[in-house]
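pinned: reference chain
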Amino acid sequence: MPRPAADGAWLAPAKLNLMLRILGRRDDGYHRLQTVFQFIDRVDRLYLEPRADGRIVRVAGPPGVPPEQDLVVRAADALRRATGCDAGVEIRMQKVLPMGGGLGGGSSDAATTLHALNRLWGLGLDVDTLAHIGLSLGADVPVFIRGQACWAEGVGEDITPVSLQEPWYLVLRPPVEVSTAAVFNDPELTRDSVAITMRDFVAGDHRNDCLAVVYRRYPNVAACFDWLDSIGGAPRLTGTGACVFGTFGSEPAARQAAARLPAGCTGFVARGCNRSPLFG
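pinned: its structure tokens
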């Protein structure tokens, strides 16, 4: 069961897409995908306090995001509408995960909010119900609800838990936000990849079909990708970016690479996690 950390914070971890293939486009405009999600131990922290007046109040959140557009507020509201609950909550977030980086921060924040309020409001909903509510907020919210590294298909909602190696990653954040909509609408995006199996992925098929478009449209992302490649980091793009990451065999190796980051790029070292840090 998910639970708060020792300081009362509910953790909302980042994810990495270890592979991303686009198999086609549905009539509703959504793309059919294959991807592998793994969590990392880099987290936003949410502090939630029940309110007796029935209001949902965000006192601290992502810079520049109005409360009505914030996924944590929308998640709280969706949970109330789905259950008929009239309880209130005050939400304070310590935002660490970058927006527009492909790390799933907003979806993770929403999933953690659903889990936390399910407990704080005494609703007693099971994981399947929370995942159904979360899907209305974003295709990858159910991944964070279930809290297990997974193979995902469909638009990302058809999930199969997997057990992966848990290496150390160096995640680079170029100084740019990538528009997911722009990438998926790019006429040069590959949309007809052949489906692969988990065995293919384990054997080394880690392709991200978005990389060519992002590489062309965002030179800052391309520069970080090339730098990781030059130091043997086996670079990959997570989601549509902007973040790229390299895999290392040990924490010291990842930190040595982090100490040599190219100018204009920030980054951090994180451990891969098959179980979401929200679940302890």
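why pinned: The chain has two domains: 10-162, 168-273. The chain is about 30% helix and 30% strand.
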